[in-house]
Amino acid sequence: MAELEDQKKFAELLSSGVKSLKLHPEYKISRIKNEKISAGQSYLDKIAAYLGVSSNTIKSWLGQMGQKYIPGRIDDGKLFGIIWIILEKSDMNIQWFTKILETTTIPVIKPALPVWVASCLKKAKTLQNDKTFGAPLDEDIEIVMKRLFDMSNYENSTSKEQPLIHNLPTRWSGNFIGRKFDLEAIQQWMLSPSPVCLITGWAGMGKTTIALEVAYSCTGNPFGESIRADVGWPTFNCIIWVSADWKGITFSDFLNTIAYQLGRVEQINKSINEKRFVVRNALANYSREEPVLLIVDSIDTADREIHEFITNLPQGVKVILTSRENLNQKYREVFQEMATIQLMGLEKAEALDFLSYEVHRYLKTCNSPNKREKMEQLLNISPEIQHQLILATAGNPKAMALSIAYIADDDIPAKQLIRDLGKAGYSLLELFDFLFGRTWNRCDEDTRRLWQVLCFFSKPPDEESWAAAAGLDARNFRYAVEQMRTYALIQPERIEGKIHYFGHQTVVAYGEQHLSENQEFKKEARNRWGQYYINYLETHLKREQPNSIYWSYLLGRDLEQMKKEWPNILKVIKWASETGQKELLIELVTRISHFLSRINLPLRIEFGLKAADYANQLGKNTLEAFFRIDTVGWALMEVNDSDGALLQIESGLKILEQLNSHHTDVYDLKVWGLALKSKLFLKVGNSEKAEAILEEVKNISTTPIIQHRVLLVRGDLCLLRRKDEEAIQLYEAANEISTMYGGEKTIEAYFNLGIAYVNCNEFEKAEATFNHILYDKNKANQIELIYYHYGIALLLSRKGDYTKAQKSNQKAINLIDSWEPTISIRKEVELLNEFIENS
C-alpha cells in the first residue's frame, strides 16, 4: 500500500492528470452505453471500470468529495493503474509522474531513470481483454517510455534488473599518492577466483581512500598511482558502495542500498526478511550476465546479519571489505580463497610525495599570510626533518594531514610539533592521543562531557538525548556543541524536523578512550543515559489506565516516536543486558514488553528471560512472575514453542503461590496465568483441560484488564466448538470491558470476533470487525496486516470468491515469511491456502 503523505497535493496532481484524459477519444463523455465497459457513461466511470473500483472512489482520490475524504493510502496496483492510464492516454510528462509519487511514501529516484519508471508501471493493475486485472504489456510500456524520455532507440530493459552504474562517493582528494604494491595486490585479486578482499589497518591509514580509488579505477577512471599499475583494471558495470562508519549500519539499510542500485526500489519499504531474499536473487540474476563489485566500508561496525549475507553471496559478486579489525580468521572459515591487504604506513618516497601534496593543497586555500609563511617553511625544511615527521606519524596519512593543519592553525613552530610528535610514539592510541589531545586541551569541560558520551548512541543523537547523557542544561549544551562544530568534531544534520549530530569514527573513538579513563563520570553518564530512555518510554508508552506496574504500558498510542528512537533504545537494553545492569534492564523490559510484541518476538523472549533472572536475583518476585507468564510465556506461545511456554507459565504460577494474593497485581496475575495456560491447551487441541481451567477462573472477580483476557479465552473455546453466537457475545463483552481502561490494540480480540461473524454469515459485521484490527490504517504494522489479510481471505472464501481470497491469503503468507515465520497463525493460513486451491 502506498501511504499518501501530502493528500491535498496528491489530489491536485491526480486531478490534473485525469482531466487531461478528456481530450482522448476513449474518454469523451458518451450518451450511449459503451458495449465494452458497462460501468457507466462518464469518463470517470470508464476509469473506475478499468481499475475495478467505484467512480466515488476515484472522486475521493481527486478530492471531489472533500479533502477529508481523500484516503490515507491507496493500493499500489490501483495507484499505478490510474497513473498508467493517464500516461498512456494523455500528454502528461515525467515531471508530473515524479511529482505525484513524491506525495506518497514510494521512494523516488531523481532524475527519473527509464528502468525505474518502467518497473513502477509494471505494478499497475488494470482491466485486460480477458476481463481479468493485470499489468500492462511490455510493448505498451515501451511505447510510453519512448515518449516520456524521448528515446528513439529505447530498448525494453524491464525484463531484468538494470542497475545504476555506481553510487560511489566523490573522491576524497584531487590525487591518489602511493600504495603501489597494495594496488597491485588488489589488481591480482580482481583477476583471481577469490570472492573477497579484506583491507585492514589502523584508522587514518587510508583504507577507505584506497577502496574508493580501486572502485573508480574499475569504472574506467583511474588516476595517480592506479594509472601506472602494470595490469589493467577490470571494468564493472555495477559497483555498489555501502558505508558503515562508526555508527554502524543496519541490515535493512544495507539491503536498501543494494536494492536501490539494482533498480529494485519497490523493496525499500518492505520487511527485512522479504528484502533479504529478493535482494540476493536480484544480485544473482544480474551477476549471471555482468560481474558486480560490492564494497562495504567499515564492515567491523556492521550488523551480524550483514556478515552472514556476505558469506552467502552468489557467484559473480566480488566483495571488498575495509576494517580496522583483522577479520581474516572470521572469513577464512567460510571462504576457501580470500585476499587480505594489511595497510601499513606509507613508504618514505610515497610519504614525502603525500606531504608535499598536502602542503601545496593547503597553500592554495590559505588566505592568512602568517599561515602561508608556516606552510612555506614546512616545504623548505631539510629532508632529514621531513623524514622525522614521517617517522613520528608512522607514515599514517591522516596523522600527517592533521599535523600540517596544526602547524598552520596553532602557534607551535613546525620543528617543535615534529619533536612533540616524535615523543608521542607509534601506536594508534598514542598517535591520535597527541593529535586529538591538542583539541581536547582547548575544549571546555562541558564540551569534553559531550565528546565522551557520543559513543553511547547507535544512531546520531538529538539535543535532548545527548544533553541528558552528558548532564548539561540547554544553554551549556548549545555552547559546547558550537565549540565541537568550530573544531570540526561533529556535523549537524536535520532529520525529520530535528537536528542530529554526526561525528567521525576517530572522534568517537577518542572520546570513548577518555571515557574509559574517567570511570566515575562514565558511571554517572551511563545512569543518566539509561534514565533518559526510561523517561522516554514513560512519555511515549505509559497510559493513564490501567494503573499497574506492568499493564500501564499496553499499546494504545501512536508509536512513531518510539520507532524513530528505537535503535538507541535497543542499544540501552543490550548494554544493560550484557553488563548486568539488573535494575535498569528490569525497568526497561517492564515498559517495552508490549511494544516488542509488535516488532520483534525473539527480542521479547530474549530480554524477558534475562529480566526474569535478574528479578529473581533481586527478590522482585512479582515482576519475575510477570516476565515469565506474560512477557515470555505469551511470546513463546506466539512462536509455537508450546513446551517452553508451559514451562515459563507454570514457573511464574509457582512464584505467585508464595506471594500475598491480596496484592492486586499478584491476584490478577494468578488468574491470567491460569487463563493463559488454558489458551495454550486450546492451541495444542486439548479443549477439555482448557475448559476445566476456565471453569475454575471465569467467576473470579478481577480487574477489567484480566476480565478482558479471560473473556477472550472463553470466546476462543466457544469458537473452537463452533458455538459462534456465544463466542460473539464473549468477544463483544471483552471489547466493551476494555473501554473501561482506555481500550487495547488487541489483534486477536477483533480477529476472532470477525471469524465468529463469518461463521454466522454476517459478512458486513465481519468486514467491519477485521478493519478494527488496523488500529491506525495509515500506519498499520506487519502483525496487524497478517491477521487482517487472513481474516479477509476467510471472509471471501466463505462467500465463494476464491480468486480474491487467494490473493489476500497470499499477502498474509508473504508477511509471515518476512516478519516471523514461526508465528502460531502460520499453519492456519497455509491450511486455508490448500483449501482455496482445492476449491
Automatic annotation (TrEMBL):
Q: GO cellular-component terms in the record?
A: cytosol
Name of a matching Pfam family: NB-ARC
Gene Ontology terms, MF aspect: ADP binding
- InterPro entries the record matches: AAA+_ATPase (IPR003593), Cro/C1-type_HTH (IPR001387), NB-ARC (IPR002182), P-loop_NTPase (IPR027417), TPR-like_helical_dom_sf (IPR011990), TPR_rpt (IPR019734)
Q: Does the keyword Repeat apply?
A: yes
Q: Which UniProt keywords apply?
A: Repeat, TPR repeat
What are the start and end residues of each TPR repeat?
Answer: 747-780
PROSITE patterns tied to this protein: HTH_CROC1, TPR
| Domain HTH cro/C1-type positions | 29-58
* SUPFAM superfamilies in the cross-refs: P-loop containing nucleoside triphosphate hydrolases, TPR-like
Please give the biological process terms from Gene Ontology that the record holds: defense response to virus
| UniProt cross-references to PANTHER family, sorted A to Z | INTERFERON-INDUCED PROTEIN WITH TETRATRICOPEPTIDE REPEATS, INTERFERON-INDUCED PROTEIN WITH TETRATRICOPEPTIDE REPEATS 5
Query: What name is this protein filed under?
Result: Transcriptional regulator
